[in-house]
Predict the structure.
Amino acid sequence: MIYNERDIRNQTVKRMAEAVMAAARTAPKAKGRDLVEVAMITDEDIERLSQTMIQMSAESGMKFLLRDAANILEADAVIVVGIQCENSECGLNCGYCGYKGCAEKPACSPCVMNGVDVGIAIGAACSKITDYRLDSRVMFSAGWAAKRLDVLNGADLVFAIPLSSTSKNPFFDRKSPRKEQPAEQPKQ
């Protein structure tokens, strides 16, 4: 049997995305507490994520959501990494969150270590993505929409990483949704 890479590309990216999720899972966590959640979005759910971003743009007026909504449609899979922040303080009383200690921090205010854990998990995922030479980009916008869709069951701090395998990464060199401005003339 002969397989052309173009014919199996979608399945290949999804298979690699499973290992990317494992890399995010095994990343070190503050005090060894595993509060990070990881999921993969594919197929019609990527379209649903894109539609949610379009709706969020209409509600907020944030035009970059339109650009990113179109952009994630180029993905074969979207990895979502997040953490539920409520009542998840580490008990270090470090004050990094801006409060004197964990007891003073409101439940809805994230523990800084939660953000660090998500960042380390994203870094581990991106390292595996690099090993596979997949196209990717960490996106706040798609993560924000995934949060609205409750992809990670109540996660508060969510980021997304679209994945593809193309001759040029479609997630970079994107056109701005704003009207193009003429180039400024150099001063003489």
Q: What stands out?
A: The longest helix spans residues 5-25.
